[in-house]
Amino acid sequence: MNKxxxxxxxxxxxxxxxACVSDAGTIYRAIDLHRDDLRRWLPxxxxxxxxxxxxxxxxxxxxxxxxxxxxxxxxLFEGVFCGLVGFVFTDTVNRxxxxxxxxxxxxxxxxxxxxxxxxxxxxxxxxRTMNRVQIKCAVGNLSSNAIPxxxxxxxxxxxxxxxxxxxxxxxxxxxxxLLAQERDNLLEL
Length: 189
Description:
34% strand, 8-stranded mixed sheet, single chain, Aminopeptidase, alpha+beta
């Protein structure tokens, strides 16, 4: 039995489509083409070497209980794949989740990711009944940090050496959160 893939419309130009195994080639080629740019802030990039590895990642996303699913969505801008956004470390008991994201370089600076993250937060609050959405960004990744700040997330502090950056280096991570009761911040976009 095939389950229906989720689609979330952000606006007339942007759509989020649940990523599935058949998307592995498109996603891998995009990462491989932009490997030098993406590896700076995405440590997983250097460990991804084939479409088969991307398929393994995608096949494991919702393999268990659907309520615990960490949904990952392809971002389509006017029908063109431009990045991924999704949930990681979802905790349904405590009704909290974390959002992670990346965008291909040629699509940056247009507000695409801010709009996608805002829409996904509303979906998390309204559909998944989450109370808290968290975003972690490497302290030096100014573009990534701008998104939760723009959306009214609260900076809670710094997770020291929170992400392995390769070659024995670690990034400190800014930790941001938004609570369901603060969701009105998202509606102003």
